[in-house]
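Predict the assembly for these two chains.
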Amino acid sequence: MRSRREFLVLAAGTVASPVIANASARQRRIGWLTAQQPGSLTSYLEAMRQGLAEQRLVEGQNLEILYRYGNDDMARMPELARDLIAAGAELLVVQGAAIPQVIHLNLPVPIIFVTSADPIAAGFARSLTEPIGNCTGVTFMGFEFLGKRLELLKEIMPVLNYVTVLGNPFHPGSEIELTSSESAGRRLGIAVDFIATPTRDSLEAARATLARTRPNAISLLPDGFAMAYRRTIMEIAGELRIPITSGWPAFAQAGALCTYGPRLPLIYRRVAHFVARILNGTRAADLPVERPSQFELVLNQATARSFNLAFSRAILARADEVIE
Amino acid sequence: MNRSIVWILALPRRVLGSFRRHLSVQVAAAIIGVAALVLGAAGGWSLHLFASAQMTAIASMHQLQATTAAASIQRFVDDIETHLRSLIGPSWTSTSEDDRRVDAVRILRALPAVSTLRLVDPQGREQLRVSRLGPDIAGSGTDLSQTEAYKAARQQGRHVGAVYFLDGSEPYVTIHVGGASDRRGSVVADVNLKLISDTIAAIRIGDAGRAFLVDSQGRLISHPDISLVLRRTEVASLRHVQAALGRSPSGEEGNLVAGQDLEGGSVLSAHALLPSLGWSVITELPRAEALAPVNTAVRLSMATLLGGLLAAVACGALIARAMLRPIETLTVGAAKIGAGDLDHRIAVSGANELAQLGDRFNDMAASLQAERDTLEEKVRLRTRELALANQAKSRFLASASHDLRQPLHALSLFVDELRARPTGERRARLNDNLSDAVGRLNDMFDAILDVSRIEAGSIRPQILRFPLAPLLAALHAIFSPAAAAKGLRLSIDDSAAWVESDKSLLQRILQNLVANAVRYTVTGDVRLVCSEADGQLTIAVIDTGPGISPDLQSEIFHEFFRASTPGQSGERGLGLGLFIVDNYAKLLGHPVSLRSEPDSGSCFELCVPTVPAAAENPLSRPSQRQPASAPRVQ
């Protein structure tokens, strides 16, 4: 009886499986659009590919990802977006500074944005549950972390009273971030200023400025640009002996004193989840904008030592990872 | 045109009718019907049992899954509470502010779901706040002592607030953990319930089933599809959520709640309450999946039923064929035999009733054939007899006409002589001759008349009791002249016996016997001997004539039989004498027997019943028919 039932199920499966195989064998195509240069986003993309693989969307097998890089040229974003759609992308994953350039174009495909800005303040959504138009996405909540990073830095360096925020001005919501940093600084008794670093060349200008202003620390806005030039930035800071704090563990591994921010793999897993949901027919507007819910604090003990700093018990208790 | 339409319309009924008439169809239909009934009943019953058992199993399993899911959610909250409780030392003052901060930060890191942690001193004032995103604040002194949550936590050790949605999206809950002691502080934690989704998503309900969590108002707290929670999807109106909120039990008596999920699909649902939180875990399993084993069983039963029916059809057809073939053979064979083909034999193999029936048919045909053969033989014999009788009659007519012509011829000669005026002497002789010839003619006609009366069956014997003596005397008187003329000695016994018979018929019998004896005996004597014994009188007529050969003895009593050798006188009778004897003896019931051998004479014996002599008996009057006085020669 039992084996017969199994046989029937198997037989039914044999009939049905080619259909399923066909369905899954269908090649899906999505577009990836960023204003950055290709090298800056490798780790993001890897995290997203892993997330997609978890959703049974494997690049090269049943998924084709079309990559478009703006190479810091914002004006090309709409053209590249249309180019992706013309190439058959069923949806666009748009990162960072490219988002405001394409989100109001009323493109015929859904957009998943990946932003560190406040999506409401940046105009991508009326509320977390109401993204505008045919889009949804995730936010890294970069602005919220600025204050927290200053607070943590102040705990590590109690003498801290002047911090320079280094970042890309095309980063959407930069103003809010700056405002947030300033208000946090006021609360903590720290003066905050801002150096825009839109290009590779501006970094050299920043070096000169920093050498002149000599802040107690640098708060590096974590984005693709910073990621791409993290070694240069570390080099400049090391040279000037200014400790750096930022958002992602990669910066701590590169020599930042500490980083505090969301767990990126989890966020990219959510991006992949959105991709899978939208490819399966869910309306983008039905997917609320998601914020990270898990964060990590990474400390670099070696950097601390080089600055003759010691992490307090409370800071160590808070740390998720301490790099020796 | 119309007729053909009517014919076509009547066709199905006609075909059906012809089917109904066929025994094979009836037998097959009966077998199939019984098989279908048995299979259907058995299949239906076992299916019913299986389905109920399966439903109970599904419901129990489902309920168990819901309970397990509830337990894992409870563990999630309990785990948080345990960690929070570790922050409350035996007394608030036993730990330094710095230690408290380190501990709080450690706990914050250990509990990813907690976004903010507040330590409250025994007086209910907030002394420390650590947060993942917001600022850490020490010694704010915010007074919580008057809040309901704080009071409840002090009384019950724990208070879990109502679920709220941060920025209208993420579900949060605030947990107060405290103690009754005045020296102990308490902890307040804001918990992001979005992190329960991993726990909820990890719960496997069948293949396509899922579990989700609602609070006491039916608001969605956690769901494998977190987007539904973040969008604050309304689920409270769903039937199975209502059932869960109504606290109506599920899983009891194998009952699941039938409802529709958010996509409108039919689902079966179980639920389990987390009593301390007021939340409910609700499971959904697509109805189709839940009932798949039952449906499989139904399909299997159907297949079995169909297979059984096909087998029954095949079986019915085979049995009908096996049964019908001998019956057809029998029908055809019986029809052939009925049509007269008695040589036909029905061949039905086997030893069953049908084969026996075939054998009976064969036996019947055989006996019919034998009967017919006998009948044919009888007909042939009868025909031959008739032909012989006809021949004899023709011969008789020829000889009778010849015999009759003899006296007639003599008469005409005598008449001619009379015309020639003979002399007186001559005339007297002529007169004698004339009466002799007339007497012979009379005898002949009497015999012919007797025979025709016998054949017409018009003779009614008149049985009387009478003395035999007068009859014997008459015989003597009749035959003495003829015997004397031939030189024979005629002796007739005298008898005093009375007999019971028809006088004239008896006289006729004896007269014929004696006449024959006298006619065919050349020399010697003719005797009539009477002997009485046991109430029977045996009258024997014995002669010393040529005798009768044994092969002729049975034929001499037949009509028109005449001995091949005529009497010495050359005269021959008509061949009716013994035929009359035989027939009269049979009419009277007097047995006649013959003993004779060639050259040794013959002896005819007649047995007549005797009766005691009576004096003047009215029945003894002599018969009205007197025997002819003239000697009769036949």
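The first helix of chain B runs from residue 2 to 21. Residues 18-341 of chain B form a domain with the Beta-Lactamase fold (CATH 3.30.450.20).
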